[in-house]
Amino acid sequence: MKQTTINSLAAALCLAGFGVGTAMAAAEKPNIILCMTDDQGWGDTSYNGHPELKTPELDKMAAAGIRFDRFFSAHPMCSPTRASCMTGRSPTRYKCMTWGNDLPLREVTIAEAVKTAGYATGHFGKWHLGGIPEAAGGTGRGLPESFDPKPRHPGNQGFDEWFSNGNTFDFGSAKLYHNGEPVSLPEKDTSDAIMDVALEWIGKQAAAGKPFLAVVWFSSPHGPHKAAPEYAAAYANQKRQADYYGELAGVDHAMGRLRKGLRDLKVADNTMLWFCSDNGAGPGGSTGGLPGHKKFLTEGGTRVPGILEWPARVKKPFATTVPACTMDFYPTTLDVLGIKTAGEVGPIDGISLLPLIDGKMQQRPKPIPLVNGNATRIVDGEYRLQNNRLFRFDEDQKKEIDITDEKPDENKRLAEVNKQFLESVKKDQAAYKFKKSAKGGETK
């Protein structure tokens, strides 16, 4: 069970199999920043060929680091994917099954793990994993709040500092919570407003010489779309799309500020700066021709922009078609920091991408299980297994080609992967049973 203090948390993690490598000096520990947009489709960047939208900062970031051309969200909706970023585990394991479902405190988060290695931790922007008032859809969904002793907000999930909203927030009407206290954002682009706070906090950590984990989760471009006028103006001729494109222009500008801020603070070189989206394109967005969209367990519903910039480690930029996923953040971070984890913490569904980062991974060593409710989609290189059928995803035609009869051995292999995954999930979910109370509420 998750502990509530830093010292007891560290002890609990050690008992569970965590051990922090002592050889890595503080100056060598990379800073970690996880940036994520809300509903940005795979095609919603100019580096992926969008015909109208311009994202110069993301283009520069993709050109300077690793561009993941097959990067997937663990789920085609926001909350489960966000949970997967925190845990490295498929969200279905702890019944985070759809938007607005909480992340239970029993799960160990990436923030809790890095704290055992001496990291400062901060969350900025959209949370949507429970514990924050006024979240659209409420809090306590998926698992009732009575299941946990405390609210599931970032402060109880390993974050020292949090400036967070329960769900989405838009220009001119943004209310967030700073370490639990309600605050209002100034009337400016929400991505810039969140970046103001994140950069101030990052600057304090850099000045103190303390390694940090910053999770910056933008609310854009989730609807209802309302861009700051200065960003929408560039797309005035697009009419209905002006606000959508404007919100993404705000994200791009904020990412440029972040990259410049890290350089000015002289910490850019040894900072792992990640960028992705929480699911495929929503209304108004582009999947880049991939079939399906947000809410659907399809290529367009789960493939998203993915970038890593880390100058100290990625000295020669490259693009990769090796599939990667939001569940990979957690195990990659633990691998980089030398934090070892035993079976009690798992099973972990993601993998460490460190070999890929170092140019030593040409093929993903295990498939990716994507979920939506009780449905699964197994991604293994060019293969996709769904509904007991095997498909090859044709990148040129942007379509799935049924090869079940042509590749019976591959179909059987991935069917077994899917079967073992579902059996494992069933065991995990047993820890999250609850029943109705006598008063009609839900209890553990």
Account of the 3D structure:
By secondary structure, the protein is of the alpha/beta class. It has one domain: Alkaline Phosphatase, subunit A (3-Layer(aba) Sandwich). The protein is built from 11 helices and 20 strands. The chain has helices at residues 6-15, 56-64, 78-87, 110-115, 190-208, 229-232, 242-264, 299-302, 329-337, 354-357, 408-429, and strands spanning 19-20, 31-37, 66-72, 120-126, 161-165, 175-178, 181-184, 212-217, 271-277, 303-309, 318-320, 324-325, 339-340, 368-372, 375-380, 383-386, 389-394, 399-402, 435-436, 442-443. The strands form 4 sheets. Strands 2, 3, 4, 5, 6, 7, 8, 9, 10, 11 and 12 form an 11-stranded mixed beta sheet that branches. Strand 16 and strand 17 (389-394) form a beta hairpin. Helix 2 (56-64) packs across helix 7 and helix 5 (190-208) runs parallel beside helix 7. It is globular and about 60 Å long.
Cα end-to-end separation: 14 Å
Q: What's the CATH topology label?
A: Alkaline Phosphatase, subunit A
What is the share of helical residues? 25-40%
Helix run count = 11
Please tell me how large the radius of gyration is. 21 Å
- Round the mean pLDDT to the nearest integer and report it: 90
Instruction: Please identify the top-level CATH class.
Output: Alpha Beta
The CATH superfamily bears the name Alkaline Phosphatase, subunit A
The chain-level structural class is alpha/beta
The dominant shape is globular
In total, how many domains does the architecture comprise?
Answer: 1
Characterize the largest beta sheet: strand count, sense, and whether it forms a barrel: 11 strands, mixed
So, CATH architecture? 3-Layer(aba) Sandwich
User: What portion of residues belong to β-strands?
Assistant: 15-25%
Number of strands: 20
Unreliable spans are: 3-26, 437-444
